[in-house]
Structure formats: structure tokens, C-alpha cells
Design a protein that fits this description.
Blueprint lengths: L2 H4 L9 E2 L9 H10 L7 E2 L11 H18 L14
Parallel strand pairs: 1-2
Helix pairs in contact: 2-3
Amino acid sequence: MGDGPAAGLSRVLWSAWGRDWTASSTHGRVLADVTRTLRGSATVLLHVTTCNSAAGFWRVILAALPLVVEACRSRGLTVGRLSRPRVG
């Protein structure tokens, strides 16, 4: 974790996550995990890549993402991206 600030990045904590990197992940399980703790102002963690993930896990994320967005919108939440806060 020490590399983030050195690269000019800020640490961000999440409040909802999909546990998407596991071998048992499915798009339905990711959706259920995310929506369990989903609320306004949530930061949802989904992985883009990691060396510790199950092979092909990114396919699960691609299938789950539209469902997660729809779940947010059906709750009246706005979906967006994190801004890049500056360190220092």
C-alpha cells in the first residue's frame, strides 16, 4: 500500500464490494454482495485486475456491472466515478 502516495494517488476506502476475484464468483453473487451494503455515497469496489484473482474473473465483472448499475439506479442512486484527489 505504500506505493499509492508515492505515485501521487490517494487511498480510498470502499463501503460495498463484490468479492469478484474468487473462483466461486458469479455475476449474481457479485450483485448480491454489492447490494447487501449499498447505500447513498457508497464507493463500490470491483477489481480490474489482480495477480491473486481466479482466471477469467473479469468476465464475471463484465456480466455483473450492468446489474450493479441498474440496482443503484433503481434505488435512486447516481452512478459515477471517483475523482482523482491530489496528494500533498
